[in-house]
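Entry:
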Amino acid sequence: MKNRLVSGIVFLALGLLIALGPQTIFPVCRITEFGEEATKTGSEKNKDMSEPHMGNMKETTSMKCHWTARAELGVGLLIAFEGFLLTLFDSRQTRFGLNAAIGLSGILSLLFPTILIGVCGSTRMDCRSLTLPALVIISVSVIVCSVMNGINLYKTNRIGGRPYGPETSDHQAAVKE
């Protein structure tokens, strides 16, 4: 019971950090207009686009880190939801399966900013100096916690739901004499 709640809450918190971190705590670069930060609101942009002549039409560019943040939002919410489910289910086999899914989601969360999508190339950008290290650290934490929890669930599932040790009775012992 205690392991179930602690591991579920840890994965819930790490998943929310992955999902909401790139938007709030360690933000990525903003959408830019010709290299300048976008300062107009959505209604002002729509107003510029609705004008009949094309002279005022501005082109917006989304950087790679913007798409990484969107992908991390989905994966982070998935990890948080799986962490929540981890607190609900009592079966060790179900929790082991959820734990494996969390570990694979953590690997995917690690691959988005490093290999699959990436972040901006310049080392002076906030996404490179702040968001990338934070996402790597949190993703590795998810993977490590998932492996540790999986090992714990595997060991406690082998002999009557209890870990190896002197508490096992004769008929549950791994090696009978």
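The CA atoms of residues 8 and 108 lie 19 Å apart.
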